[in-house]
User: Which sequence fits this backbone?
């Protein structure tokens, strides 16, 4: 779970992607495109790829 102070720094989109990525089982891989589709934003695959760069929840 993200700290409250960390959540304030993230957009709602970033929060949604983090929640979604945390549900991926260990050892399973998904492309940024697939994650974007699961998030309901199929054309946002590049933005999905940039979300982990912030890495505020190690």
Assistant:
């Amino acid at each position: 779970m993200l700290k409250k102070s960390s959540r304030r720094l993230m957009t709602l989109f970033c929060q949604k992607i983090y929640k979604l990525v945390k549900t991926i089982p260990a050892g399973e891989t998904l492309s940024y495109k697939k994650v974007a589709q699961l998030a309901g934003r199929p054309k946002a695959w590049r933005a999905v790829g940039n979300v982990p760069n912030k890495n505020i929840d190690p």
Notes: Residues 10-53 form one domain. The two ends are 10 Å apart (CA to CA). The chain has a mean pLDDT of 83. DSSP finds four helices and no strands in the chain.
